[in-house]
Amino acid sequence: MWDAVLQISLGEMQLNGILAEHEARVNQVLSKILSSAFLGFFFLLIFLFNISILQSSVLLMGAVAVLGVGKIAHTPYGHTAKYLNLAILAVLLTALMTVLGENNIGIPVAVTLSLTAVAMYYNQRLVVFYVALTILLNSASAGLDVTPYLINYVPRNWITLTALFLLGAVLAWNLAKTAAGLIGFAEQQKQESKRLTADLVVIRDKISSLVERTAAIGEELSCSTAHTANTTNRLAASVGDMTATTGRFDSLAGQILSSSNHVHTLGEDGQKQMFMTREAVDEALDFSRDSLQVVNELETASHQITGIIDLIANIAGQTGLLALNAAIEAARA
Fold it and tell me: Angle 215-218-221 (CA atoms, 0-180°, nearest 5)?
């Protein structure tokens, strides 16, 4: 709801901005047209209708006033320029009815035609403002001096002219309303077109993003497929290796079983050899005990023999001493 209200507010602001720009352009154009027309009729009345400069100066003052309003349009008070231009136009046409006298036959027609300039603003309030001001000024002028209004037209003619003026006012009002509505519709369509364009850009960007993501996913799938194929090949190779390894394991298991049997056989033989070795060791121990006893006996006998030898040596020594003593005694003898 608030988005819709905001969109409507923004649309009205943009429409007001467009109408303001349009009014500024109309002010510039109308200022040039009115000033040129007033100056042109100023000289035309003097030289063609022999109107005095004093009477014709109304147009000259109107031209100067319009040019002055053109300067105001470039100031902060520029929004009042359209009202001032139309007020000058209404005042000038009303003044010309009195100033021209019997030559004012074309003024009522000019008043009605001036509604075309009012409708150029596409502003209904301006139409109402101009119509009301024109009627008020001419009513006041006729109240002061009705003679200029009855020189060329009888009252019945004024009823017709007033009806034509009011009809022109209605047409100008409808024209301003229709033009403003068309501008608003055109601006709305423009904004809608911008919004649709922006949405299309967003959709295009999303589609581009989806396409890129799809391409990326496709690449990832391709890579995954290649990786899967590579992995499958490696698994197949691994299965082959495992099969070969299993065969080798079976061969090794057979060898291990054979070795185990051989080791068992060797164990049994070793146990038998151990028993035999133990028996041999036991026999060697018995033999050693016997040998040790023999050695002990031999050592005892050796000690006895040594005693005998020592005894014999002692006897021999004593015998030698005796022989030496006998020799000495023999020598003495």
Answer: 155
Report the distance separating Cα 72 and Cα 69, nearest Å.
5
Can you give the three-state secondary structure of the chain, one letter per residue? CHHHHHHHHHHHHHHHHHHHHHHHHHHHHHHHHHHHHHHHHHHHHHHCCCCCHHHHHHHHHHHHHHHHHHHHCCCCCHHHHHHHHHHHHHHHHHHHHHHHHHHCCCHHHHHHHHHHHHHCCCCHHHHHHHHHHHHHHHHHHHHHCCHHHHCCCCHHHHHHHHHHHHHHHHHHHHHHHHHHHHHHHHHHHHHHHHHHHHHHHHHHHHHHHHHHHHHHHHHHHHHHHHHHHHHHHHHHHHHHHHHHHHHHHHHHHHHHHHHHHHHHHHHHHHHHHHHHHHHHHHHHHHHHHHHHHHHHHHHHHHHHHHHHHHHHHHHHHHHHHHHHHHHHHHHHC
CB 169 within 8 A of CB 131: yes
Tokens 């042109």, residue located? 40
- pTM reported for the whole predicted model: 0.55
**What does the alpha-carbon distance between residue 280 and residue 288 come to, in Å, rounded to a whole number?**
12
> Other CB atoms closer than 10 Å to residue 176's CB: what's the count?
21
The pLDDT tens digits along the chain (333 residues) read 545 444 445 455 555 667 678 888 888 888 889 889 889 988 988 888 788 888 888 889 999 999 888 888 778 888 888 899 999 999 999 999 888 888 888 899 999 999 988 888 888 999 999 999 999 999 999 999 899 898 888 888 889 999 999 999 999 899 888 887 887 777 777 777 777 777 777 777 777 776 677 767 767 656 755 665 566 566 556 546 555 655 664 665 566 567 556 646 766 776 777 777 677 778 777 777 887 787 788 778 777 877 887 888 778 777 777 777 877 777 776
